[in-house]
Every structure is written in C-alpha cells, then in structure tokens.
Amino acid sequence: MTHEQAVYLELLARGAATEAYDRPVLLARAGGAGSEELAGLEQAKQLALRVRAELEGRRRREAELSALFETAHDLAGLRDLDDVLRAIVQRARSLLGTEVAYLSLNDPVRGDTYMRVTEGSVSARFQQVRLGMGEGLGGLVAQTSRPYVTDDYFRDERFQHTESIDSAVGDEGLVAILGVPLTLGSQVIGVLFAADRRARVFEREQVALLGSFAAHAAVAIDTANLLAETRSALAELERANDIIREHSGVIERASEVHDRLTELVLRGGGVHDVAAAVSEVLGGAVEFVEERPGPATIPEGHAGRDGDDWVAAVSAGGETFGALVLRERPDLDPVDLRTLERAALVTSLLLLARRSAGEAEQRVRGELLDDLLDAPDRDPGLLRERAARLRADTDAPHVVLAARIDRADAGLEADTGGRESADRQRLRSAASHLAATRHGLASAREGGTVLLLPLGPGESAAELARQTAKHLGGALHEPVTVGASAPVTAPLAHPERVGPAYEEARRCLDALRLLHRQGEGAAAEDLGFLGLLLADTRDIEGFVERTIGQVVAYDRRRGTDLVRTMDAYFASGMSPARTKDDLHVHVNTVAQRVERIGRLLGPDWQSPARSLEIQLALRLHALSSAVIR
C-alpha cells in the first residue's frame, strides 16, 4: 500500500468531510510531485470519494430503515385515531427533515379531500383547506393514487391551480411539496405531505421512504378505525345487553303483576288492592279515581300521558267508571304501559262484578222492604231471618224515610219522562248504597225512594233525615228532599208499623216541598204545629216542650209568670199597655218580661210563623194543665 492510499484510508476511517479529500493532491502538487504521482493521487481520491458516498448512503438507508421500523412499532401501539394521525405527521416531518408535514383524508360523501392534521403549520386558512379531486398537488395525488413532487409549487403546471388552494399555500409560504397517497388495497384514503418553505429537490430515496411510511400509516389508520368500530360495536352490544336485561326485568315484572292480579281476582280483592299491587310492581304511586282525568283523545283500553302522570281509563261496555292514575314515573316502556292497561281492565272487571253483586243485594233489600210495606202479615220470623242474611240491624229503633230529587228546573225538561226515570235510578242506587253501609233497607217507590234505617245512639229522626238528605244530595249533585217518620220500634218484629210510618214520612216530604224547603231533611218534630197534623202519634207534649218548654221550665224554677204574660201579650194584640192592664202590673214590668222571653225563645219569637206556633203551644199547655188538675 502506498503512502497516498494510506492517507485516503485514514480519511475514510475518521469520516472526514468531502473537502478534506482534496488536501493530499494539493500538498503533492505544491511539493513538486510528478504527473504520474499526481494522477495516482487523483485516482485514489476519486475511489475514496466513491467509497465514502457508498458508506454514507448505507448509513442513511440504515437510519431510515431503523426510523421506519420504530415508526411502525410506535404506530402499532396507538389505539386512538387522532393519536395515530398526529404521530404519522410528526414522524414524517422528522424523517424527511422538512419544515412542514400534513395529512389529508378523503371525504367519500362530498367527493373531495380535506386537511386533517398539520405539523409545523402557522396558517389557519391552510389548516382548513379542502381540495377537490384533481385540484392542487394533493387533489392530483388523491385522484391518481400516485406520488407527486414539485420543487416550486406555484410554477408547476402539472396540476390544476385554484384560487382557494393557492391562497392557502401562499399563506403558509410553501414552495417545495412532496405528496404520497395513503392507500388500503386499491382505495386511496388520503395523502401524506412533506413540504419546505424554500426550493428543494426531493430525492427518489426520500419519495420512496415517505411512500413506505405512508403504507405503514394507512395500515395504522385502518387499524385505528377498526378498533373504533369494534369499540362502537362493543358499546352497542353492551347497550343491547342492557336493553335485554331491562326488558327481561320488565317482562318479569309484567308476569309478576299478572300473577298478583289473578290472585287478587280469585280471592275477591278490591280496586285499591289492584292499585297497591301495580304501585309496587311499577315503582310509582297508582291511584283509582272515579272521575277520569286526562285528554279525551286517549282511547278506551289504552294508557296515555296527562301532564306528568299516566292515565288508563277504567271502562267497560262504553261506560267509564274512572281511571287508574300512575304518578312519580316520568317514563314508561311499552311493557310497563301494557301492565297499567291490563290493571285498568282488571279494575273494570272487579267494578262490574261488584256492581252486579250490589245490584243483586239491592234487589234483595228492596224486596224485603217491599214485603214490610205491602205484606205486613208475613211471618216476622222469616222477615228477621232474611234481614239477618243482609246484615240488617233487627233490634235498634228504625226510621222510615221518603226521598225525592227536587230540581229547580223540574218541569222544564224537554224529555221529562226520560230524565225522571234516570233520576229515579240514580236515587235508588245512592239510597241502596247508603242503606247497605248503615245496615238498613231501601227500595224504589212512587217516583222516589223509601229507606228503613236504624237510629244511632242519641240520634233523632230529624237528625237522620237531615244527614240522609245531605248524603244523597252530595252523591247525586242534586237537591234531595227527605221526610222522616217517628222512630219505629222493632219494625221486623212488628211489620204492620212500617206502612203507617212510610205514610207519615211521605206527608213530611210533601210538607217540605209545599214549604219550599227542597233539598232539606226533616221529621214531623221539625215542622212545628204542622207536624202535629202530619204525624201519626200526635206528640202534643213534645210539641209544647219544643215550642215553649224553656219558658215553662223558667217559671217552674224561678216562680215567675212568663207563660201567663205571653198569653196576655198575644191576647192584647202584642200591646204592652193593654197587657199591663190585664196583668195589673207596671208597663216596665211587662217590657222586662217580654225581654226575658225573647232571650229564652230567640229574637224571632214574635214573627208571624213563630207566634202562631207559640200561641198554639200555649193553648195546648193550658188544656193539659187543666186536665191534670
């Protein structure tokens, strides 16, 4: 090996710069070396430079392959699509040493390609640009699925320039651009770019490198998309499983409520038992209401929304009994909705069954009362036995009550007969219900209703009449007038007493209507002296006691003469002056006695109606006192 060759081997070994390889030739020429020696040095220099270039290329390819492998490894570890795209652009810029790198994806719906990720970009317009197929360098790459490179973008006429694209590229200041397609099979999904803001020649090896990198990137993008689709599919499966579990739970609840409703029907449960069972199953508050709420557009047999509540009509045969109202449940799935509708159906069946049983009991109660009124010679033992089966009270004193609906517009109805018939039916139903709750009897009679009800402890016939009028009027939302008889002792043991008591009750009812006291309830004792004429018992002592009993008792306790003063006061035409002459007392004494009487009997004791009753009571009191003496 010559000295010159050794010099170049040393330069190669230490990786000297290209300029260092000229130094041995220059030194030899300066030292006066001959032409043959200089030619040998020049030949050795060229050989060393070729070796150096080859080694440099090998090192660069090794570095690129290593970087490509690391990039593929890094991309394989990414799962989120945005992370994958950012990693691709960052590594492309690093591998090629460019100022800017960016990636666009094709939009199959709009038929163009749009900027997705940029690295090193400073222009907002550039970052949002969209390229039609064939427009600009990127549009050409996306359309032809081939890489394109330009040393000077604005002077290159191979692709279509548009004002929007050129303006965006100009804003970014790009000059040299390399674009390679991102392909999956034969389909182009986007373009990967590397660009500089100065003129630059991209070598073939760099184009190939970016293309290889784009192939890895396309696979990574596809993998990320597949993972995203898989995650979405798994999420859908989880939601489907949740729905299946929820529906399974709903079906189980529906089966449970079906079993519970069936059990309720079989053991004779009521409407409120149904509401309680459905409340527990549906997790809300269910209530039965007799007046159906909600919009009329909800068809019968179905449930619908009424504000924040759910309403299911309870009806049968075109007749609405009310509704089941579900509260505290903002949403219902179809199965729960069907459960509410089924509960409404069961409720209507229970109500129909209860009505049928009630109507049968009404008929039996009515027949027993009709026998007491029309056939008093029936065997009392049999009557008591029938009453016991109806759970009627056979021992307490009873009152016979006659009731009628009294409406202000009676007689003005166009269909009077139909309205009266409906009124009688409604009154009979309400009266039968009242009789059943009070362990009595009721029946329709002579355009109205007759009831036989037991008296409660300390209750009078007049109080019972008023309570009955109030109850029936409230139930029917119509004024109901009720006349009552005097108490009848043991009516089932003495059925012959019931008929006369009914006649007395009817007379009281007629008297109330003549006195324009419709909608009230009263017995003979409430009608003053008129009650003496209407009652069968002619309770004179009771009338006197109710009318002037307080004055008589005052005289008896205090030894005063108020009764005689009242008698003289009315006899003198209610003149204090003439009264004092009859009584031989001072007029002030008369005034004091009249004031005392007013405090005992009330301020209206001198009114025409009251004074008539008081004068009659005074006469009867005087007659009874004379008889006693």
Short description:
The protein is α+β, with helices and mostly antiparallel strands and 629 residues long. It is 57% helix and 15% strand. About 1% of the residues have low confidence.
Structure description:
The protein has helices at residues 3-14, 23-30, 35-76, 81-96, 124-127, 136-144, 163-172, 204-266, 271-282, 334-374, 380-389, 416-437, 461-476, 498-514, 529-534, 540-558, 562-571, 576-583, 587-601, 608-628, and strands at 100-107, 112-119, 130-132, 148-150, 176-184, 187-196, 285-289, 303-306, 309-316, 319-327, 398-405, 441-445, 448-454, 480-484, 521-523. It is of the alpha+beta class. A six-stranded antiparallel sheet has the order 3-2-1-6-5-4. A hairpin with a 2-residue loop joins strand 12 and strand 13 (448-454). Helix 2 packs antiparallel against helix 3 and helix 17 (562-571) crosses helix 18.
